[in-house]
Amino acid sequence: MALRADDLIDRRRLRRKLTFWRVAALVVAAVGLIAFSSWIYGDDFTGTAVDHIAKVKIEGTITEDEDLIKQLDTIRQSSRVKAVILSIDSPGGTTVGGESIYEAVRKLATEKPVVAEVGTLAASAGYMIATAADHIVARKSSIVGSIGVLIQYPDVSGLMDKVGIKLEEVKSSPLKASPSPFKPTNDDERTMVRKLILDSYDWFVGVVAERRNMTKPEALALADGSIFTGRQAVANKLVDAVGGETEAIDWLATKGVDAKLKVVEWKDAESGGFLFSKAMARTIGSALGLPDYGGEIIHELGADRLFLDGLVSVWHP
């Protein structure tokens, strides 16, 4: 006897429900298994429970990154970390962001050997962070340098005139809230901004001179915003050697670090341990065939640079 249309619809609905609960059960089982493994094996699950060389990736636009600074401090306190490789691939970012990470790396370097490995790019605040390491290696075709500071702001006053928009403002003093995108800057405003930039620039140049064993005039000669290849950077003493991770490990060996130690990448993790970490989210997502979370997509597209504000040290904002 042929099934009625209503019976067929009911069966299909039942199958959908069964499929949903089967998938849900698999996800719960996967979460439970990972959580149990993390609880049983602890740091062994991530490979940090044995002596190793920690690798920290610093990529994309530099901003104030409290998670990264906490991670660097955790690495500093870990007795299992015998040395650190900073893998840098960044065009720079905010000056304050670069400064805060620079100071965290310097604090770390007082207790463990730190080497910076430049990938495609270590410019501006990215290079600032690299100078905090005890040794810098870069590929022959890496881009290094762009030492300097800038502020950029739009001037939309012409557009406002065209569309008939006027800005009314009352302020306590002439330089309050200046420069403004709503009107052209005047000489006093440009002078104020230039003083701001030159003070941070002087600090940046001083850092390069101190960390790269240069005189201030030598550092200033390289701090005109120029970028260099890895080979040029070696010739100009901005980088110590040409190479990658192998050469970084070879240098660490000269500091008494066992070259046979495994290099373990320390990844970002949110509070709550591995169970609620970004690493676990990626693991489960990958198992279910899902793409990485949207934050990484935004990062890869470079959209985070759109939100830079204030004083920046970046190759191209």
Automatic annotation (TrEMBL):
The keyword Metal-binding does not apply. It comes from Mesorhizobium temperatum. InterPro entries: ClpP/crotonase-like_dom_sf, Pept_S49_SppA, Peptidase_S49, S49_SppA_C. One of its GO terms (molecular function) is serine-type peptidase activity. The keyword Transmembrane helix applies. The gene is sppA. Residues 108-254 form the Peptidase S49 domain. Keywords: Hydrolase, Membrane, Protease, Serine protease, Transmembrane, Transmembrane helix. It comes from the Bacteria. The chain crosses the membrane at residues 20-41. This is Signal peptide peptidase SppA. The lineage of its organism: Bacteria, Pseudomonadati, Pseudomonadota, Alphaproteobacteria, Hyphomicrobiales. Gene3D superfamilies: 2-enoyl-CoA Hydratase, Chain A, domain 1, 6.20.330.10. One of its GO terms (biological process) is proteolysis. Belongs to the peptidase S49 family.
